[in-house]
């Protein structure tokens, strides 16, 4: 599929993807996510915020933006 299209059986049904193709799809998907997105996601859900509580407001930033737009 990544090399030019789907493969079909003799009866005309789609063949399942090779496991190596699936691995490559996953690998390329993960590689396309920037480090910044990963870092912001961890901070958003309070997983890696500063222990001194200086980043606690990060969890609520998006909610504050939505409320201010209403």
Write a structural description:
It comes from Rhizophagus clarus. With 70 residues, the protein is an all-alpha fold. It folds into 2 domains: 31 residues, no CATH class; 37 residues, no CATH class. It is built from 3 helices and no strands. The chain starts with 18 loop residues before the first helix and ends with a helix. The mean pLDDT is 78.
The chain-level structural class is mainly alpha
Q: How many β-strand stretches?
A: 0
Helix content: 40-55%
Q: Give the percentage of residues in beta strands.
A: under 5%
Q: What gap, in angstroms, lies between the N and C termini?
A: 45 Å
- Please count the helical segments: 3
Radius of gyration: 21 Å
Uncertain runs are none
Number of domains: 2
Shape: rod-shaped
Specify the biggest β-sheet: none
Order of helices and strands: HHH
What is the mean predicted local confidence, pLDDT? Answer: 78
Protein name: Pogo transposable element with KRAB domain
Organism: Rhizophagus clarus
């Amino acid at each position: 599929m990544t090399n030019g299209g789907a493969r079909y059986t003799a009866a005309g049904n789609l063949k399942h993807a090779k496991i190596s193709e699936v691995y490559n799809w996953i690998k390329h998907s993960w590689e396309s996510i920037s480090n910044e997105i990963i870092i912001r996601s961890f901070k958003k859900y309070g997983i890696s915020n500063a222990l001194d509580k200086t980043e606690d407001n990060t969890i609520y930033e998006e909610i504050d933006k939505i409320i201010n737009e209403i």
